[in-house]
Design brief:
The protein is α/β, with parallel strands linked by helices. The chain has 2 domains: 55 residues, Orthogonal Bundle (DNA polymerase, domain 1); 284 residues, Alpha-Beta Barrel (TIM Barrel), CATH 3.20.20. The protein contains 12 helices and 12 strands. The protein has a 10-stranded mixed sheet, with helices on both faces. The protein has a two-stranded antiparallel ribbon with strand order 5-6. Strand 10, helix 10 and strand 11 form a beta-alpha-beta unit. Helix 1 crosses helix 2 and helix 4 packs parallel to helix 5.
């Protein structure tokens, strides 16, 4: 299998050009064709010699994704279902905000973390994506936005999979995104979300990146978190919070804690008080998320008035809490839901 052009960093392109006997400025030209002009073939790279274009075509794949379907919501949200070279399917989402366009990317085909409220884990983990396969998702989203003269302003690594179980590819992706010769998305406009892989949080703290770290918390105590998120059996809440403290001390960056409100499970007033007490004085931000309905899970959404009350209680402990705006409520909004439908349809026709 040939590597994808998007797998390589600018430094690696310079090394490759040197090995090919090409001047180093060819690396800049190639990056310009890939990320600024966003061409669809090597033949379009007209300021490269024919020999170099042929060499690139022989050594690399340009197309990492094929669009199976794209669902467009009335609110402007776009959800893509992409097919990879080996037939697996992944999801990518464009979300519109008043501060710009955000793209949510996938890092794994499936997921093995097993959170009980998430559709991504249905069917388990198939494989990791390469960094280039993650980069290609943002490039595809940017091509879609090109039609409207808009750009990708931020990236959230919150799609299917656990990014820190595909750590090297995730960090490489972030560095490619941040390169000024590429899409040049600032580190502080990149958010990576983890279910709580404690060793990776320590490692990430030492990377020297200024990205936003988001922790999928979803419970204010270890007992409940173990029921909702099996990963908490391996990495208990106390160990997770200790790693988060290290991250904050090392980077000076505030952590966002994601909390999906599930009716009758983790949305009681007592849970709000526990959460406020747990994060009091940490400087953290809590992002309250009305849970998306997933038929296979049969969880119900917390009523809106209870969500606002939950927020008020958490903030009474001087912990900033926001409520995530819903995107794509009229399409398959839940992470992994569109892929799950696709897999189910494939099973029925096979």
């Amino acid at each position: 299998m040939k590597p994808f052009v998007y797998d390589r960093t600018y430094t690696e392109w310079k090394e490759w050009m040197k090995e090919e006997g090409e001047p180093l400025f060819r690396a800049d030209q190639l990056m310009d064709w890939l990320y600024k002009k966003r061409v669809n073939s090597f033949e379009e790279m007209t300021n490269l010699s024919r020999r170099l274009r042929e060499r690139l075509s022989d050594a690399f794949h340009l197309h990492a994704l094929e669009t199976i379907t794209a669902q467009e919501s009335a609110d402007g949200t776009v959800k893509f279902l992409f097919q990879l070279h080996d037939g697996h399917a992944i999801e990518t989402v464009i979300m519109r905000h008043n501060y710009g366009n955000s793209v949510c990317v996938t890092t794994q085909v499936g997921c093995r973390i097993g959170c009980t409220f998430c559709a991504s884990t249905l069917g388990g983990l198939k494989r990791n994506l390469s960094a280039g396969e993650v980069v290609a998702q943002v490039v595809a989203a940017q091509k879609y936005l090109d039609r409207e003269g808009e750009r990708v302003d931020s990236v959230v690594i919150m799609g299917i999979g656990e990014p820190f179980e595909n750590y090297d590819a995730t960090v490489r992706f972030m560095r490619v995104m941040n390169d000024k010769r590429g899409l040049w998305i600032g580190q502080r406009h990149i958010t990576v979300s983890t279910s709580g892989i404690v060793p990776a949080i320590y490692r990430f703290a030492d990377e020297g990146l200024q990205a936003v770290l988001a922790i999928s918390l979803h419970a204010p105590n270890q007992e409940l978190r173990r029921k909702l998120m099996p990963i908490s059996r391996r990495y208990p809440l106390s160990d997770l919070l200790e790693a988060c403290h290290y991250y904050t001390e090392k980077t000076g960056r505030r952590i966002t804690y994601e909390y999906a409100l599930i009716g009758g499970k983790n949305d009681q007033q007592s849970h709000a008080h526990e959460l406020g007490q747990l994060l009091q004085g940490s400087g953290a931000l809590v992002n309250l998320i009305p849970v998306n309905y997933v038929p296979e899970r049969n969880y119900i959404r917390t009523p809106r008035n209870r969500i606002f009350n939950f927020q008020r209680i958490v903030e009474s402990y001087k912990v900033k809490a926001t409520i995530r705006r819903e995107h794509g409520s009229d399409i398959d909004a839940a992470c992994g839901q569109l892929r799950a439908k696709h897999l189910d349809a494939e099973r029925r026709t096979s």
